[in-house]
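Quick illustration, no need to memorize.
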Amino acid sequence: NKNGHYFLCLTDKNLTRKQAKDLFLQSISELKHWAKVNGYTYRNLEELAIWYLEEELKKHEFQERNVAPNSEIYYKQLRNRIDHPIPSKDRGNRKLDVLTDLNHLTEYQLASALVRVNDNAINAFFQTVRRRLSILERPLVTARGDGKSYIYTNFNPKYAQYSLTILRTFYNFCEATKDLDGEKRTPAQRLGVT
């Protein structure tokens, strides 16, 4: 029903923290200059980034519109990424792409969604995997530092896959977290699945 959307966020991880921070500060300066040249007055950087992306989206296409032989309209993915106007402070540039059909949204609505896209959710999931699945734990160095202990490590990949599938399903649909309004709900409730 077009309530859930799938975005990709490709982060440039080749920069040092200092280079990433310098790029972040430079991009903010350029964004503020763009606002001044175009006569925008803004309350915060997110609002300014949305307006910038809105202008960029007027000349940018994520998908190509096609017509099938039965006259049905469908969209083909172009793999045409767009740069986020504000790079990550500690990782650098982010390139964004959309995999779901968002042609029903205005440029402003799409820009509002894109400005919030980042890889924090996937990083949080990886941290959850590391904390909750002891069978995927990295080897521990002994107290004396002369050997490694694989006490929790699983040597059978089949069971690691089973555990990961169960955790991923729980994480994506069942684990309740607080919304922006403070209400605790599961992802399935937010999507309207249950």
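The chain has a mean pLDDT of 86.
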